[in-house]
Design brief:
Two copies of one chain form a homodimer. With 665 residues, chain A is of the alpha+beta class. In chain A, 33% of the residues lie in helices and 17% in strands. Among the domains of chain A are: 22-240, no CATH class; 430-535, Maltose phosphorylase, domain 3 (Sandwich), CATH 2.60.420; 542-663, no CATH class. In chain A, the strands form three sheets. In chain A, strands 12, 13, 14, 15, 16, 17, 18, 20, 21, 22 and 23 form an eleven-stranded mixed β-sheet that branches. Chain A has a six-stranded antiparallel β-sheet with strand order 1-4-5-6-11-8, with no helix packed on it. Chains A and B meet through α12, β12, β13 and β19 of A and α12, α14, β12, β13 and β19 of B. Chains A, B: It comes from Coleophoma crateriformis.
């Protein structure tokens, strides 16, 4: 089964579509903007191994040096850039990749070791703190960059040094008596090694990924103790020294290393780490052809369900707790800082998409594609401005005075911006999956998301081409056109979104075969009807988080898009919409906005006479008589204007924004 | 102005009344039970300074040794026991106090030092860790014990060594170049020193209290740095070593030492510490006759308001966060562990009462007496079983499977049980305040709480006696009888509870003078009407926390009593009443329960046809269509039975309990 990082090459997006616009923005703006920032901040030249003044700074977050992720920032940019170059050439980007490749090659030690910090700043510290210091995380991103580079340039200039580095890692880590029984504090290399194995077929790449996954959380893995404990003692760490992101001593759940994956009951800790780890775990289960009842697969399902049902925001965002950038307890999903949390990091939502995609390979279930799409259009896309040059890291569902709904140009820990870049580079790989059987001369297309795009697969000498045309996610109709040689049989399975209460296909199917959210379009029908249309009537929906979240709120959604209110078109707001009460029975009108303010069309929503405002008649005290909690009208707010959450914070303003609105009393 | 720990001696409770019953329980059961536990656990003999096996145990909560509070456990018991002996003699208790006094005297070092841990276990550690190690906290409780001992026994056997110890402290701490510029991590000694000053009139006792209060939170107090920083460096503490209760490095807000008291905007950190500190601060402001606009007084008001309006539970409990036993952010008041918190420690509510009482001395405002009474009848009394031999430390408003509504026989950190004991010993001092003017031959009585009791004050040779008779808090009428010589003028001010929507006095007053919640009964009217009745019709009220708590719940209250539901008389419950929805419009009946099950009468409430249950029609996921969240009836639950929160967990059962019930959809 192909990975989306490869299969995206079969897809061509056509214009106009939301995805095509975003890709155009990244290609023409974001890639070059990020390259400029890489240069300005010292990251670009860092593999030259010259001292940079940043290396002298004390860590913002002890014990993690501020520049520790620089390897990965560069690697993710290379990876994303290679994906985009395969769409459109660009000399400046091409030259930069080539120069970076040379610098990376030149930074490699003779034994294969390759890391900026541990070569230049702390050469004695190599592999002494896997728990905190992102060495293997950086290695994972270098592997992914090398794979993208190899795929695009069809040479080994980057892959060669990376393979040499991986050789060193294979020697260093493993079950042998002379090997370290460790595993990365920040997973990433596991999924990268499995993808590498797919290219190299070298079993030691598979084995190292498997070792990292199996060994993780072993309470007696190193000398009868937890690896991180032994490692900390070896470097002389005090028994009560606590990294800034640990809420308590030895909180290995931060790294999902508190117990072996197969024993974990609930999803815990740092949410990006959890997603990268489980993406690899799902891929391992797939590669080993595990049955659904295998312990690893049941653990993955259990953790996924716990996350989606009890620890995910309306937007698809995950992670409520700022301190450890991760999951709170079940149903702890405050919308903003003033309620006790909300992190919903952009990278974490990208991680959910990665995990959902692997799960779709294991089990074609529309539930996974629903979450994939929810995250993409809301929790991920909200991370980049329409200009392509501003970003968010944290994506709260409600602003506060201390955390306005505003964007930044960059971050010290800059994981999110290049992660959005590379995701949009290979997004075509998430749109659909195709399988080809050369012997049977058959092709199967599983369509997970809708857009305007074409995918092409080859069977022997023939080509099969499937085109979808739509103005998704704004309009309801998707027109499909299949070009398939007579000798080939093609089957299509179409995702019926979970939110779609009804759907219509025309011409009509002879028979409806709908299984786990996918509608099968059989080959015989397709022979007669190579062009067909499916429609999912888009109506504004009123949604709500689970009552156990204690969020007595509702939000608006339409298709896969979650909406918010912000001050740009509700300028009266002074309090982040905190006292606003929304009447779910109000009339809501839709409007396709095509003016140029945001440079892209979208559907805006307006709720009429929907707003009232919290009024408390009496002094505040611990026990308010319930009758004194009322609402008052504010005649000037006859219209409440909603915009897609992903488009927030693009039109200036004060940074007041909210997704979930208190329900009318 | 007398302290309640002294003025309580003017009050005699009469029977029957809730307070009298509780005091009888403590006298006949709790004091002897706690004495037995003190002996069994090693605390009783600890001042003999022989090794106890507990001293070998590693700390449950680093860096605090488990036995660190033993001095204070003994001291608080002595203090409480002395209060009760002044009511009724008891040979066993008397003998124990005398023996403990001898042991404490014998434990004193030649230089006056007096502390179990730092004399026996860690003699080199004396005054090396004020931040964590409770040395001055223990000293404060020893002072309070000595004051109670001196008052009852009228000898100096305990006060003498304590004064010697205080001399050492006065030499050790202060602004001098050769003195330590430190202050206790756990306040307590400040309020004790001010009370000591009231007895000794020794200005150095006042000055040391004032120094501790003024110096607290000084960022440059010791050698240009924060005292705790200097102290930690001096004992070689690693820069990243973090006590288990610190959510992050140097979280001095835990100790309210993050900035000077006068600069603090919101109430933060460990809630017991905050209350003990601000009780002393309020007393200092009173002793210095500060005006309301003085910086310390405005700080105290600001912090009190922040607490009562934004950080207090319906029961008067404070402290949402378990890790640091303290305040969350504004409006973060989950009812139980499954919602993210709820601590509401018994000692903290006792601390609120202490602070409220001092504030009443500064400013006679019924708001303070409302909170005083709310805490007493709910957050404090819930801490002891009707048997007097079981206790709670944490008082959540909703149970969960991990934190059942159950009592314990004792705690490793046993601050709460003897704190309830001593509080009930001097509760008479909270009931009312009297002022006498010998020259004008006038007496004034401010009545803060109602019960069945008599207070007597002397004016020269005469006595003025005020009696109140009622079955408070169950019945509405309080009958007052004043016995006052013709030559003396007496004035009474009666607290009108904030919850009382109406009140009636008979005979009628000629003129109503009601100011900040206190009704003045003038002396001329009293001459004609020495017997009168005031009534506060008690009706069940439906109350609610502030909407910003995101607690969409209601609770029942009647008079000062807050109610809960528990499984003992709602045996069908399986889920801690978590799915229960309550209809605020339902009929609620009241019933005076006089059977013997709990050994005391109380008013039970029953809501008829009030219950429905959360039903979610659809699979759980992050965005539920709002229409799928409904409720279903359960015909078998026609009656929902409520019991006062303070009486919970006395009748066996499963430990399922809840105060705030979800509002009917």
């Amino acid at each position: 089964m192909a990975y989306p990082q490869t299969s995206f090459q079969n897809t061509t997006f056509s214009s106009p579509s939301l995805i095509d616009r975003k890709r155009e923005t990244v290609y023409s703006k974001t890639l070059l903007y990020q390259l400029k920032v890489l240069k300005e901040t010292g990251r670009y030249d860092a593999f030259k191994l010259k001292w940079h003044k940043t290396y002298d700074d004390p860590p913002d977050v002890w014990p993690v040096p501020n520049h520790l992720f620089w390897d990965s920032d560069v690697a993710k940019w290379i990876e994303g850039a290679c994906y985009f170059l395969s769409w459109k050439k660009n000399e400046e980007i091409d030259a930069a990749i080539k120069e970076l490749t040379e610098m990376i090659r030149s930074a490699q030690k003779d034994d294969g070791y390759l890391n900026i910090h541990f070569t230049l700043v702390d050469p004695k510290g190599r592999f002494s703190n896997l728990r905190d210091l992102h060495e293997l995380y950086n290695a994972g991103h270098l592997i992914e960059a090398a794979l993208a580079h190899h795929q695009y340039y069809k040479n080994d200039l980057l892959l060669e040094p990376i393979l040499k580095y991986v050789d060193l890692l294979c020697k260093t880590f493993g079950p042998g008596a002379d090997q370290k029984h460790g595993y990365p504090g920040h997973p990433e290399i596991e999924l990268a090694l499995l993808r590498l194995y797919n290219v190299t077929k070298d079993p030691k790449h598979f084995d190292l990924a498997k070792y990292f996954l199996d060994e993780r959380g072993n309470p007696t893995g190193q000398d009868g103790r937890h690896y991180y404990e032994v490692e900390a003692a070896a470097r002389g760490e005090g028994e009560h020294e606590t990294p800034a992101y640990y809420p308590k001593k030895n909180a290995y759940s931060y790294q999902q290393a508190h117990e072996p994956i197969v024993e974990q009951d609930t999803i815990e800790g740092h949410s990006v780490r959890a997603m990268y780890l489980l993406t690899a775990a799902a891929d391992l289960a797939r590669l080993k052809n595990q049955k659904p009842e295998a312990p690893l697969r049941t653990a993955i399902s259990r953790l996924w369900s716990n996350m989606v049902e009890k620890k995910m925001y309306l937007t698809g965002g995950i992670g409520a707790i700022k301190q450890f950038e991760g999951f709170g307890i079940d149903y702890f999903l405050p919308q903003g800082t003033d309620e006790g949390g909300c992190y919903a990091e952009t990278c974490a939502a990208i991680g959910v998409m990665m995990m959902a995609e692997r799960l779709l390979q294991l089990d074609l279930d529309g539930h996974y594609s629903d979450i994939l799409e929810l995250c993409f259009y809301n929790a991920v896309l909200t991370g980049m401005s329409t200009s392509g040059e501003q970003f968010t890291y944290v994506n709260q569902l409600a602003s506060t005075d201390t955390d306005l709904s505003k964007r930044a140009e960059w971050f010290t820990c800059a994981c999110c911006p290049p992660n959005v870049t590379r995701l949009l580079g290979y997004i075509g790989g998430y749109l659909w999956t195709s399988k080809v059987d050369e012997d049977k001369k058959s092709a199967e297309f599983d369509v997970h998301m809708y857009s305007a795009a074409t995918t092409t697969v080859s069977i022997g000498e023939s080509k099969v081409e499937l085109e979808q045309k739509s103005n998704w996610p704004w309009e309801s109709d998707i027109d499909f056109k299949l070009k398939c040689p007579e000798a080939v049989t093609a089957t299509i399975r179409l995702h019926i979104p979970g939110w779609a209460k009804e759907w219509k296909i025309s011409p009509k199917l002879d028979q409806v075969e709908l299984k786990k959210g996918y509608l099968t379009i059989p080959s015989d029908w397709l022979k007669k009807n190579p062009c067909f249309r499916i429609s999912f009537p888009m109506k504004t929906r009123i949604i709500s988080p689970h009552p156990y979240t204690n969020q007595n709120v509702v939000a608006l959604a339409r298709g896969p898009i979650i909406y918010c209110v912000e001050d740009a078109d509700n300028p009266w707001v002074q309090d982040h919409f905190k006292t606003l009460h929304f009447d779910p029975a109000s009339t809501i009108s839709e409007r396709l906005v095509t003016d140029d303010e945001l440079g892209e069309p979208y559907v805006a929503l307006t709720a009429h006479n929907a707003a009232s405002f919290l009024a408390i008649d009496g002094t505040a005290s611990p026990d308010l008589p319930v009758a004194c909690i009322t609402t008052k009208e504010q005649p000037s707010v006859a219209e409440l204007n909603f915009i897609p959450y992903y488009l927030r914070s693009n039109r200036g303003g004060k940074g007041h924004m909210r997704v979930g609105l208190r329900k009318k009393i």
